[in-house]
Amino acid sequence: MTREKKQDNNIVKEMVLGILAVNLLVAIIGLIFVPQRVVFLIGLLMGLVVAVLMILSMKHSIEKAMDFGEKGAKLQTIKGYAFRTVLVVAGFVGAYFIGIWAMASFFLGVMSMKAAAYMQPYTKKFLHH
Prior knowledge:
Layout: H1 3-33, H2 37-65, H3 70-98, H4 100-128
Helix pairs in contact: 1-2, 1-4, 2-3, 2-4, 3-4
């Protein structure tokens, strides 16, 4: 495995660890304050899964785009973006039918990806030192 691929895989692992950590914290807070705990946890789990799938999709899209020229790379990037958008919209629709707390927690689960990006330098230190 090349050094770049290994580094990419490490970043994905660090991001997934950050997503899991943020979702665990949100779940604990939700269990304390949310009246519909099961609905909240289902939505949060859905958001966690979508966030992880989005990270994996981004990695895949970038790797595939590197195999193409400028025009092909742009098309590959757009296809990856469209897939991630459909994933999030489908998740919100599913959460809608479960309940308002599921929609709120789904949003938090998906947004944990953003928090994980900010935490990535710290998760890197945690995993590799």
